[in-house]
């Protein structure tokens, strides 16, 4: 190969230049390097531009603006969070901590000329100065600072506009050092910005004069300069340096010019060599920022600012310690993001009430110093104090350790300033007072007059070449061009949350979410389902506007404001910054997904502390129920989530034609949904149910009562009630932006509601205007766990479904292939096995505008259909001449039908204590019932009148449309098992409503079934073919059986080696196992179900586990990787398992207590089946009157009355008897009575239902065993005898099975399984081998709280103990000693807390 062309041919080739150029690979390498130098490679300027673009795309939440000119290169960095801190609430701060501090740090960038310009502001929440703007500058000239301050002013103006407040000069007050570039740069930025504002008529000379009044100099810099000069013997005689120091330091505080000039003259006469130094400080620009008698800034503003920029200097040191020095551009920007994140965490923790420090805060420590008469944070004025307060050199620390470090608790003394004069001319003595100008649109529209000129203290007429009237158009145009040139990206800047509008599915297959922690799935699913419409459908802006406007004190936020803060953080963080650790390396302290979960934990604590959620943290709750309590009906945000309805009651008495109606507006709770009994009427269609509520022409009866809301009251007693029967219709009058529908979960599981993708409140024409709901997310429930499906918009204009399960994929939502309508909508969308729709979340497409459109149209439609006028708010009025208003209140209006010959009221006497009730229905909040006095006789008429079924009366009155009610009694749900279960664990049922579906085995003798998971005395899944339950074994065998388990456990007969790798083959129901919780520790549990195909099971955790969240609970969907057993004789396997802290079975101190059955206490626990309802319905009147007037009946009619006055140990409570009935049947009877007997809850509180309940059970026993009870009877009074025998069986068989046998002894099967596991794990006999010698966790790390399960605990070894050696218990090379130290320290802290609590 020849070389380049030359005058005499060609130059030498590459090979002739050197031997290494003979290699083609080397020549190619060198050519590529040369091309890079010429600007074509990634390290060239073009490569830098590309990297800058990539960095901006990676961090869309960080506004990064760059500016390059002939003189300067600047890059600014500001996040949305930093911008929001620019105008803090300083109302409660009395110290001089206001304004902005600005200074430049050296050595942060690797560029020797590079500077890091930082502006910070004081945060009252954390009592620290926080950064609000960073800038890289390739120098420290005035243009560099001008660009920095210009971006700062623009940001403050934007924040003021967003908050709807006036942008004033007070927002720009700041403290700087005496660097001329800083001062000139600020003045230039101030002029550049306001010259470009068309509504600001001030001229440049006026703007510069105004800018000078906004800067205050750093007093500490001046004092340090005095100290340096005092030490220079060539300038100050050492014998007089104290006097020099005293006079020089007094200059800034002198109040009059006369005193000031006298001191200046003394200094110049005594120390003439220091005159040039003093003249620099007396320069008009410097003096106007420092000396009180010459300061341009008004005294009342200067007193609000600190005297020093030392906090800014301290921040520079913090940045250097946290992320180091000498950074390249992009590494430095990443480091600044780390610093921003840490400060943001501090502020957010304070907002959520989480302490950022140990012991006293800096503010508290400062107050203590003041009480001691210290220097109050001012820079010391003497050399001795300066020397003793010099900061010590600190070791390099990380950002994690900064959380325990006080970054700065230096506070400045608030000086009492008097009125100041602006020295325009050094010889002038004219006093003036400056009032900061306002730059809001309203203020800037005022033309410049003489007053505004005087405010700026500049006589424009004296400035040649300028007109005093107005700013010229050329000046305005030029300033706007300069502004656009210096800040080109500000017009195109978009908020961080814009990235949520659509995702690119080709690159995004998962979204950040909340990781499960301590039973948090109820809150995780709620927040994920709500965040979807907030982030991806544009609802956050409306939600933010409502919440922030209504919040009275953001520094002490309400729980609703905390919810906004949680959403705001996720919006600010965006999506791109969230990276799951398993998908690649994550930089330190940049794991926002984990921070989302931390904020969730803080928000959950707030819900518990404010009693919005009951119980302790970690208790099981319902999704979205907390949101209804979080948003009461009297807050503006209520309309955003809750629909408004109009309820119209109408009462008719069939015999007389009496009619009256009641109009009551209501706000429905969050999660409002159709009742299960309405499924048949609407054929399971949510759209049908919603249409009937939104369209008056389709309105149907939603409630029907055989009673009325009317009552007569005298002396706080109900003395009469109306005899009519009432019905109600409901119509939606206002729809929310976010509609949450939660179907009736207790209705039969074979009737699922069909949720559409589009939900129409009105017509298709209205839908085109945005009045239509879109299904955006659904919460699914199953196996005591909640997951969320979300419809996420994509860039292809389609939607994709992402599934969030906090227990999977570290909380990250995963993309699910398939159509959105198939995965989200319908009656039974495909989901995880066993899960059904719990809630559906709809978003109103048109937002608040569509909400307003619907309200106007709906009110007009109701007016034309029902003659109801909405102008008389808050309670609408019935505008019809046939109906006359008879009463009104804050909640309702009542009307009588006016017709001759028709009564307006019809009451029956019913003296009764006043209970504040309305129409009986789901939406009326009843007051706490008062205790009843003895009024059994007088209450009879009240309750029985509600049972009278009147004939329909045809009236000439105008008809308010009440369609016929369509109520049906629900049928029984399908059983989880079709067998009669009588298990050794104490459970007896017919298979209905078992909480957990599990395998059973039939006894070959009694034919009853036993749970296989309760057969713990085995090492394999094999069960004898001819199985006999404990109850059927011979008495002598039963006696042996009680001791047989202890023998089986001690001998471990038939137990073989259990290797870790073959655990799947050894799992079966009833086996004691270890289950991993939280990814680290394993806890004991009993396996209840196990699916060999999917390798998923259900477990019951051991009650002795010390973690409350894991103790004694049922956990579903436990997978094989999280399960191990006792690993008998497997030394290597045991060394890899770390154990969680629990009480070993032999040491358990908890005595087994009888727990009251919830089924017998809660009348809503089980719905009454159609079979039992059919038995009791014919006796409804009798059972009702029996509660009120039992003396009316004889023992032959009600055998249970024999127990009414019994004085035995039971105390006359006939409900004790349950013989012959299952617990579920007893609960169904209880449910029927409380739903069908009027005022049942009140009667029950006064023990008036006992005989009714007992007789209802008697009737059910008589029905169930009718053929058996009538076997030996002859004709004649047959039914009476059946009742008597049924009552006797109810008494005699109490405590027995439904077949009359004595109940077998209840076995603690969980204790058996864990005891057997404990023996296998900790046996130290020769048979156990080396695996029994304290091997658990030796290769990985310590156990929870560093506990030692085999030391100082009761031994389970019954055979000869094996003698081991120390080498067997040596730690492996991967053992985590750091974790051991942490666990030990954590254990010590817990012991101290426990000791202190005692």
Automatic annotation (TrEMBL):
<feature type="region of interest" description="Disordered">
    <location>
        <begin position="363"/>
        <end position="389"/>
    </location>
</feature>
<dbReference type="InterPro" id="IPR011011">
    <property type="entry name" value="Znf_FYVE_PHD"/>
</dbReference>
<protein>
    <recommendedName>
        <fullName>Zinc finger PHD-type domain-containing protein</fullName>
    </recommendedName>
</protein>
<dbReference type="InterPro" id="IPR013083">
    <property type="entry name" value="Znf_RING/FYVE/PHD"/>
</dbReference>
């Amino acid at each position: 190969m020849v070389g380049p062309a030359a005058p005499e041919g060609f130059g030498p080739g590459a090979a002739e230049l050197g031997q290494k150029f003979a290699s083609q690979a080397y020549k190619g390498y060198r050519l590529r390097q040369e091309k890079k130098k010429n600007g074509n490679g990634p390290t060239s300027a073009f490569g830098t531009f590309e990297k800058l673009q990539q960095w901006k795309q990676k961090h869309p939440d960080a506004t990064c603006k760059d500016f390059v000119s002939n003189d300067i290169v600047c890059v600014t960095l500001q996040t949305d969070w930093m911008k929001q801190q620019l105008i803090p609430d300083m109302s409660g701060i009395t110290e001089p901590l206001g304004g902005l501090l600005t200074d430049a740090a050296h050595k942060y960038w690797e560029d020797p000329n590079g500077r890091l310009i930082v502006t910070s502001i004081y945060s009252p929440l954390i009592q620290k100065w926080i950064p609000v703007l960073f800038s890289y500058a390739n120098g420290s000239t005035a243009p560099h600072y001008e660009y920095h301050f210009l971006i700062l002013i623009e940001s403050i103006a934007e924040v003021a506009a967003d908050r709807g407040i006036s942008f004033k000069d007070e927002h720009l007050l700041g403290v700087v050092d005496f660097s001329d570039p800083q001062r000139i740069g600020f003045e230039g930025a101030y002029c550049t910005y306001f010259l470009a504002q068309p509504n600001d008529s001030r001229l440049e000379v006026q703007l510069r004069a105004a800018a000078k009044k906004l800067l205050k100099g750093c007093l500490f810099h001046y004092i340090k300069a005095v100290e340096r000069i005092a030490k220079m013997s060539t300038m100050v005689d050492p014998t007089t340096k104290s006097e020099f120091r005293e006079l020089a330091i007094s200059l800034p505080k002198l109040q009059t010019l006369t005193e000031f000039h006298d001191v200046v003259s003394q200094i110049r006469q005594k120390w003439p060599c220091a005159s040039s130094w003093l003249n620099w400080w007396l320069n008009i620009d410097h003096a106007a920022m420092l000396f009180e008698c010459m300061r341009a800034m008004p005294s009342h503003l200067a007193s609000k600012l600190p005297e020093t920029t030392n906090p800014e200097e301290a921040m520079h040191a913090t940045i250097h310690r946290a992320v180091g020095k000498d950074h390249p551009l992009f590494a430095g920007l990443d480091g600044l993001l780390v610093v921003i994140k840490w400060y943001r965490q501090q502020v957010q923790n304070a907002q959520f009430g989480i302490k950022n420090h140990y012991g006293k805060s800096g503010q508290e420590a400062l107050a203590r110093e003041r009480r001691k008469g210290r220097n109050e944070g001012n820079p010391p004025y003497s050399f001795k104090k300066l020397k003793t307060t010099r900061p010590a050199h600190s070791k390099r620390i990380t950002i994690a350790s900064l959380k325990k470090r006080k970054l700065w608790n230096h506070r400045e003394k608030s000086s009492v300033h008097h009125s100041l004069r602006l020295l325009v001319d050094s010889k002038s003595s004219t006093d003036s007072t400056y009032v900061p100008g306002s730059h809001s649109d309203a203020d800037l529209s005022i033309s410049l007059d003489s007053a505004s000129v005087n405010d700026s203290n500049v006589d424009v007429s004296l400035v040649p070449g300028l007109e005093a009237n107005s700013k010229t158009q050329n000046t305005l145009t030029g300033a706007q061009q300069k502004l656009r040139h210096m800040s080109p990206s500000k017009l195109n800047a978009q908020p961080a949350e814009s990235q949520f509008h659509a995702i690119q599915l080709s690159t995004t297959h998962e979204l950040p979410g909340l990781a499960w922690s301590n039973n948090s799935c109820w809150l995780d699913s709620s927040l994920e389902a709500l965040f979807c419409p907030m982030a991806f459908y544009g609802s956050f802006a409306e939600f933010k506007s409502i919440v922030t406007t209504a919040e009275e004190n953001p520094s002490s936020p309400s729980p609703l404001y905390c919810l906004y803060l949680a959403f705001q953080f996720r919006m600010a963080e965006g999506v791109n910054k969230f990276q799951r650790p398993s998908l690649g390396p994550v930089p330190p302290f940049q794991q926002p997904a984990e921070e989302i979960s931390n904020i969730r934990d803080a928000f959950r604590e707030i819900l518990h502390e404010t009693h919005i959620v009951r119980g302790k943290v970690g208790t099981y709750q319902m999704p979205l129920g907390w949101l209804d309590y979080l948003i009461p009906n009297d807050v503006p945000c209520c309309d955003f989530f809750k629909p408004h309805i109009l309820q119209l009651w109408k009462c008719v008495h069939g015999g007389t034609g009496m009619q009256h109606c009641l109009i009551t507006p209501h706000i429905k709770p969050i999660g409002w949904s159709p009742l299960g009994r309405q499924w048949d009427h609407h054929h399971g269609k949510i759209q049908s149910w919603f249409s009937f509520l939104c369209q008056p022409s389709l309105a149907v009866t939603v409630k029907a009562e055989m009673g009325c809301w009317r009552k007569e009251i005298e002396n706080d007693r109900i003395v009469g009630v109306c005899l009519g029967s009432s019905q109600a219709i409901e119509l939606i009058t206002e729809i929310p932006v976010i509609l949450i529908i939660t179907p009736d979960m207790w209705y039969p599981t074979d009737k699922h509601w069909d949720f559409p993708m589009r939900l129409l409140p009105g017509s298709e024409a209205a839908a085109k205007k945005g009045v239509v709901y879109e299904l955006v997310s659904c919460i699914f429930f199953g196996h005591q766990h909640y997951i969320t499906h979300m419809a996420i918009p994509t860039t292809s204009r389609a939607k994709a479904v992402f599934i969030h399960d906090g227990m999977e994929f570290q909380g990250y939502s995963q993309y699910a292939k398939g159509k959105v309508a198939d995965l989200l909508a319908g009656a039974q969308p495909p989901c995880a096995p066993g899960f059904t729709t719990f809630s559906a979340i709809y978003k109103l497409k048109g937002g608040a505008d569509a909400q307003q459109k619907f309200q106007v149209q709906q009110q007009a439609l109701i007016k034309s259909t029902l003659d109801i006028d909405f102008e008389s708010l808050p309670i609408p009025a019935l505008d019809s001449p046939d109906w006359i208003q008879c009463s009104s209140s804050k909640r309702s209006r009542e009307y009588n039908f006016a017709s001759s010959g028709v009564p307006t009221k019809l009451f029956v006497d019913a003296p009764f204590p006043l209970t504040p009730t309305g129409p009986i229905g789901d939406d009326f909040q009843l007051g706490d019932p008062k205790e009843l006095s003895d009024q059994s006789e007088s209450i009879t008429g009240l309750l029985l009148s509600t049972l009278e079924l009147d004939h329909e009366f045809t009236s000439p009155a105008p008809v308010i449309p009440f369609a016929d009610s369509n109520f049906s009694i629900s049928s029984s749900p399908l059983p989880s098992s079709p067998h009669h279960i009588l298990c050794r664990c104490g459970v007896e049922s017919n298979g209905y409503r078992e909480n957990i579906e599990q395998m059973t085995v039939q006894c070959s003798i009694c034919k009853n079934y036993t749970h296989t998971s309760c057969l713990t005395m085995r090492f394999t899944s094999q069960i004898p073919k001819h199985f006999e339950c404990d109850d059927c074994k011979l008495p002598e065998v039963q006696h042996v059986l009680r001791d047989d388990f202890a023998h089986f456990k001690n001998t471990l007969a038939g137990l073989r080696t259990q290797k870790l790798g073959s655990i799947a083959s050894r799992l079966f129901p009833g086996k004691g196992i270890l289950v991993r919780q939280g990814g680290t520790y394993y806890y004991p549990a009993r396996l209840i179900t196990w699916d060999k195909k999917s390798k998923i099971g259900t477990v019951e955790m051991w009650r002795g586990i010390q973690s409350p969240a894991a103790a004694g609970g049922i956990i579903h969907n436990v997978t094989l990787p999280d399960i191990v057993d006792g690993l008998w004789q497997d030394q290597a396997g045991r060394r890899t398992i770390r154990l969680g802290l629990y009480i070993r079975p032999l040491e358990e101190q908890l005595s087994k207590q009888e727990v009251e059955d919830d089924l017998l206490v809660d009348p809503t626990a089980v719905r009454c089946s159609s079979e039992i309802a059919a038995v009791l319905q014919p006796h409804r009147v009798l059972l009702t009157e029996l509660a009120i007037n039992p003396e009316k009946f004889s023992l032959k009619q009600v055998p249970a009355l024999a127990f009414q006055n019994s004085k035995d140990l039971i105390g006359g409570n006939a409900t004790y008897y349950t013989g012959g009935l299952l617990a579920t049947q007893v609960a169904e009877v209880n449910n029927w009575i409380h739903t069908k007997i009027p005022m049942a809850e009140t009667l029950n509180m006064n023990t008036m239902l006992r005989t009714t309940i007992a007789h209802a059970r008697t009737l059910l026993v008589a029905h169930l065993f009718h053929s058996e009870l009538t076997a030996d009877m002859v004709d004649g009074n047959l039914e009476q005898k059946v009742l008597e025998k049924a009552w006797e069986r109810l008494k005699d068989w109490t405590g027995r099975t439904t077949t009359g046998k004595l109940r077998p002894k209840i076995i603690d099967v969980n204790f058996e399984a864990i005891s057997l596991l404990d023996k296998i794990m900790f046996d130290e006999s020769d048979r156990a081998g080396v695996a029994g010698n304290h091997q658990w966790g030796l290769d990985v790390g310590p156990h929870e709280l560093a506990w030692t399960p085999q030391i100082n605990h009761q031994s389970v070894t019954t055979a000869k103990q094996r003698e081991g050696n120390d080498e067997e218990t040596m730690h492996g090379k991967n053992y985590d000693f750091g974790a051991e130290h942490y666990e030990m320290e954590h254990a010590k802290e817990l012991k101290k807390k426990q000791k202190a609590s005692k």
